[in-house]
Design brief:
The chain contains eight helices and 14 strands. By secondary structure, the chain is an alpha+beta fold. Helix 1 links the parallel strand 1 (5-12) and strand 2 (34-38). The mean pLDDT is 97. It binds one DNA strand through residues 14-15, 17-18, 39, 41-42, 66-68, 113-116, 154, 167-168, 171-173, 208, 210-214, 219, 221, 223, 225, 252, 254-255.
DNA sequence: ATGGCTGGTAGAACCAGA
């Protein structure tokens, strides 16, 4: 029996068209077999397929909409798209699920940011974010297939996932109610957090830095908002995980960086 | 210094992101 490596990447790209140059550079450098994108910000009819097909990524599944959100799965290996959940029940394009060769499922999700105020009465977007995750909890509890769940979760759960735990306790992405809700999602399918499996707490690990800092590297005020989770059976086959911090310094960067996991399949 | 910027879309001293 032959074992080979399947390399899966996830990146909130903040517009796939604005990132045409550096997404190609990332693929050429990191050589993933599959790339999950979030915030493609493009309708399906205008998706820039040629960036990917010219590099041998012949299999592309897209769930986009005008202006905002949008997800895509770009692959060198055959994928079969079979699900697109609307976990916010409002029509936004935030999920895409595919089956991989061998029967493993890959789920790409863009969880809502949730607005500024961490209170669902004053800020409906915060309630929508929590409700989105509650629907994911229901879905997770019924899973019966080896599954990888990746994307921009918009929550940094651990103290070492943010630059300052105390200062961020009331900032959406690190509030106790979000962290508690994400913990119940993780428990619902016994998901393994592969980022923290390989880069263990309390080591700092971030995947996002605000555009507003003149030099993001000086204060290093990051958050770990992007995640790669897997059910136990698939997690046992994960061999490496890394984040591509260098991409944050490339020309016209996204504010998120790619995360990459290798699986022995 | 948690918004100081960025992208899309309209054609706005907009909106949204996190």
């Amino acid at each position: 029996m032959t074992t080979s490596t399947l390399r899966i990447a996830s990146w909130n790209i903040n517009s796939v068209r604005a990132r045409a140059a550096i997404v190609g550079q990332f693929l050429d450098d990191a050589l993933p077999d599959i790339l999950c994108l979030q915030e493609t910000k493009v309708e399906d009819g205008s998706f820039p397929h040629e960036i990917f097909t010219s590099r041998g990524y012949a299999h592309i599944a897209i769930n986009g909409q005008k202006m905002h959100h949008g997800v895509a799965i770009i692959s060198r290996v055959p994928i079969i798209e079979d699900q697109r959940h609307d976990w916010q029940a409002n029509g936004e394009a935030r999920h895409l699920g595919v089956s991989l060769p061998g029967g493993v499922r890959l789920e790409n999700v863009y969880i809502p940011a949730g607005g500024d105020i961490p209170n669902r009465d004053e800020n409906p977007k915060f309630g929508q974010k929590l409700d989105f995750i509650e629907r994911m909890i229901g879905w997770s509890g019924a899973l019966d297939v080896p599954t990888i769940l990746t994307g921009d979760f918009n929550i940094a759960p651990l103290e070492c996932d943010v630059w300052n735990h105390k200062q961020l306790l009331k900032v959406v992405s690190h509030t106790p109610v979000e962290v508690e809700t994400l913990a119940r999602l993780q428990a619902a399918a016994d998901w393994v957090d592969l980022g923290r499996h390989f880069i263990t707490a309390p080591e700092r690990l971030y995947t996002w830095w605000s555009y507003r800092a003149a030099d993001w590297t000086i204060a290093d005020r990051g958050r770990r908002l992007d995640h790669m989770w897997a059910t136990r059976d698939v997690a046992a086959r994960a061999t490496a995980h890394r984040v591509h911090r260098e991409c944050r310094s490339w020309e016209k960067p996204s504010d998120h960086i790619p995360i990459v996991t290798d699986f022995a399949i």
